[in-house]
Design a protein that fits this description.
With about 90 residues, this protein is an alpha+beta fold. Helices cover about 40% and strands about 20% of the residues. Strand 3 and strand 4 form a beta hairpin.
Amino acid sequence: MGLSQRSLLSVIYFCEHCQKETRFVPIYYALALTGKSRPTLYYWMKHSWIHWLEQPSGRRLICEQGLIRKARSFGADAPNARPQAMNNRPSRAL
């Protein structure tokens, strides 16, 4: 993706958590960036594991820096990787 396309997908805002101006991206771009599912991103948002803001229109934007840090900690290099704590759980009998 070219630089001009990327800039159309994001907006620069001051992130209260990062304490600096950073790029905020829409959810569909965050999905492509991390390889995670939409429910996973909403789960991270619900637990404040990633920084996000809601525009007056209701559209949510995610802090790209916080997203990248979190995705790396959960192994975004392997799109279907699960957090370590989840991997250690015993499987349920069906």
